[in-house]
Every structure is written in structure tokens, then in C-alpha cells.
Amino acid sequence: MNKSLQTYLNTNTKAAPLAVFRVFFGVLMCVSIIRFWSYGWIDKFYIAPDFHFTFYGFSWVRPLGEWTYLLFAICAISTVMITLGWKYRFAMITFFLSFTYIELMDKTTYLNHYYFISILSFLLIFLPAGHYFSLDTLSRKHIKKQPYSSNEITGYIPRWSLDSIKLLLGIVYIYAGLAKLNSDWLVKAMPLKIWFPAKFDIPLIGNLLTKEWVQYAFSWIGAGYDLCIPFLLLWKPTRTFGFIAVVIFHILTRVLFPIGMFPYIMIVSTLIFFDASIHKKIIYGLARLVKYPKVLLEGNAAWQPVSVVRYKIVITVITLFFCIQLLLPWRYALYPGELFWTEEGYRFSWRVMLMEKSGYAQFKIKDGVTGKRFYVNNADFLTPLQEKQMSFQPDFILEYAHYLRDHFTAQGHQNVEVYVESYVTLNGRLSNTYIDPDVNLAEIKESFIHKHWINPFNDEIKGL
């Protein structure tokens, strides 16, 4: 192993920042799940619909009927355990598996920040976030039944464990910024030109949002913010300014767009960039509230892995994890055509709120034996949200076509053929035919290869 790399891996830093991150992460995740439950969304999105859109390769992940509530309950309980640092590793694995399962049940609800939470929780499984200010540490004290000395208490953790979270946040921001370097966003201020005028009723700033120069300003500032913020947070002289920018930016996005807890998650996450002395103050303040023994906060021992082999496995897993995170957003380059139009390689690439896309899709069923044809009322099978998402996303359209094929075959129709008449508009352009109406979707197999049955985009969007 390279000597400088070995030195880096053996460098330790104070454990307080990771403990603060764990506590805030657990609290926000718990609030998010309670919020989701209280709004009745478990039933609305996962139990009530008869049909669910699945991710390719994960069609086996399905809602569990009324047991779906238990899945959410398990996820919520794990967030409490994470916050308390009780059985931390088990709790984090449980949260990752339950939360990710929830997100895979129906891709209609896919959001970038749900994906972020899944991969962040996976990363946290391998970090020693439960070794400081935790019930795990407290229980070890009780088991020992004798006073600890400061060199027996974990007060330091590997530096890479903090840097890995910073790197993940940097990837999210920088890729989001690179995605904004396109002609629709910078030259046409799209889709903000469409969205902002509808926000005219927002107090104080509503009238400004109708101004074209404001729409352009937000577009350019948004791109600059995403590209610069990781570096502002990394450099100590600009860190405070960067954090203020984070707070302002995410509060504005929360006011302008209904994106749930994501702004708060990003605000809290950026605290990881601040010095350990600030996190120490937060920890000591929380410790006084819950009467946590002060002696367990004053350790100077470094965290030690269970074994060298296990440690090397962890480093290998994390390295592969970041290789995937760095490469996955570029997979769209393997496909021909305009990314915003075909959406092949669009998900999981941190392209956040870059387009206003809507469509219309009417399906025609043909009995291959009798020649009988009829049209489908989508409302008979899909919820309004599902129909909306399906109308402009080709993998949704294909999966729904297969569902219709199977449904009408079960009703007695033979050699069922499925055709779609679809029209899509992108970022204010006139709608165009989206899917080749002469292609029988019933015989098209889902795969990662290019969907040749998507009609070409009649314009050009320049950029990355």
C-alpha cells in the first residue's frame, strides 16, 4: 500500500463530529418517517394502489399489504436506536435495509434525496459512529463495573470516516452543479421560467419570482452554488460564509418547492465540515440534557478495528462504493439521444429539478386472433400520481404495457398486442409524439439497452 495512503488511513481525529452527525441523522429520519405516516402516505402510495411500478431487477420488491405499516415501524424504531447509539451497527443495517426496501416498492415515489439517504445509510454502516456519546459506550461502562481511565474511552476515530461523508456530500453537490451546465438551465432559465410565476402568492418574494431577471439569477446562482459550496465548506476562512449560504439556499428551496425534509437534512449534514470543538459543545450540551456521564466524553483513546482483515474489507467496500458513486452518474453517456427526453441514465445521477416534463399516453389493446381493438382508461388501473409519472417516462410506459398485456390475457384475449399514443412536452416546448405508435410494446423486453422505440427529440439541449 502507498506510504502516504497508509499514513492517511492511520490518522485519527476527534469523534464528536461523527457522533453529532449520527444523532441529527437519526432524529431527522425519525421525523421523516412519522411525517410520512401521519400524512396517510403509506396507504395512499403503497397499500391502496393495485399496481406498482418497480425498478428493473427489483420486481420482487413489493408492498406487504397491511404489513407495510410494520415495515415503517421497524424503520422508525431503528432511527431511534441510531439516535441513541444503541446497538448501532444492527440499527444502521436495519434502517438501510428497511428504508431502501420502502423506496424500491414503487419507483413512482423516486426522489433524489431518498436515494441519497439510502446510500448515506449504507456508508454509515461501516463508520464507527456508535463509539462516542452512545448507549453502546454507556453499556460497556456498566459491564466493566469499574471506573474508566481516559485512555480506555474512545475519543478519536479514523479521519477517513469523517472525510467519507464530506466526499459523498461533495459528489452530490458537484454533480448537481455540473448537470445544471446546460443550455435550457443557463440560456433559457428553464424550468424556473415555468415554475416561478406560479409562486406569485408567496409572501415577500412572490412578486419578484415573476420577473425574468430573477429567474435567470436563480438559475445561474443555483449552478454556481452547487459547484462551489463543497470548497467553501472545506476551506476554513470561507466555511462560515458557506454554511450561511447552505442555510439560505435550502430554506429558499423549502419555501419554493414541496421537497419534504431534504433541505433540513442537507443543512444538518454540512455541520460535519466544522471543527470538532463546535461539535464538542453540541455533545456536552446534549449530555447535560440527558445526564450522560461526562467522563465518557473525555476519552483520548483511538477507535480500533476488531481485526486487520475486517478493517481491510471495510476499506475495500468503501473504496468500491465511491468508485460506483463517481461513475454511475456518467452512464447516460452510453446512450444515444437527449438525456432529458429518453431519461436513459437519468436517475441516480443527481440531476435535481432540471426539467418540467409532462405527457399524455393512451393505450390501445389489440386481440391478435380476433383483431378486436379497444382503448384503456388508465384511471381503472393507476392512481393519478402513477398516471402522471407514467405518461413521460419510457420505462414506466413499457412496464405498464406489460401489465396491461398480462391483465387482458387473463381476461381471455389472445396474443394481446399493446400500442400507445403518447405526446410529451419538455421545458415549455410544443408536445411531440413520444413513443413510436406502431411498436407493439407487449413484445418488447425491459433491459438496459437503448429503447429504440422512443421517437427522436426534435431539438438540442447543449451541456453535460
Summed up, what is this model?
By secondary structure, this protein is an alpha+beta fold. The chain has 18 helices and seven strands. The protein folds into three domains: 247 residues, no CATH class; 90 residues, no CATH class; 88 residues, no CATH class.
Describe the structure.
The protein is of the alpha+beta class. Helices cover 52% and strands 8% of the residues. It contains 18 helices and 7 strands. The strands form 2 sheets. The protein has a 4-stranded antiparallel β-sheet. Helix 2 (16-38) runs antiparallel to helix 4, helix 4 runs antiparallel to helix 5 (88-104) and helix 12 runs antiparallel to helix 13 (262-269). The two termini are 35 Å apart.
What strand order characterises the main sheet?
5-4-6-7
How much strand content do the residues show? 5-15%
Structural class: alpha+beta
Q: Please compute the radius of gyration using only Cα atoms.
A: 25 Å
Counting DSSP E segments of at least 2 residues, the number of strands comes to 7
Topology diagram in text:
Blueprint: H1 3-9, E1 12-14, H2 16-38, H3 41-47, H4 68-84, H5 88-104, H6 112-125, H7 135-144, E2 154-158, H8 159-179, H9 183-186, H10 192-195, H11 212-234, H12 236-256, H13 262-269, H14 276-290, E3 301-302, H15 308-327, H16 339-342, E4 357-366, E5 373-375, H17 384-390, H18 394-410, E6 417-426, E7 432-433
Parallel strand pairs: 2-3
Antiparallel strand pairs: 1-2, 4-5, 4-6, 6-7
Helix pairs in contact: 2-4, 2-13, 2-14, 4-5, 5-6, 8-11, 11-12, 12-13
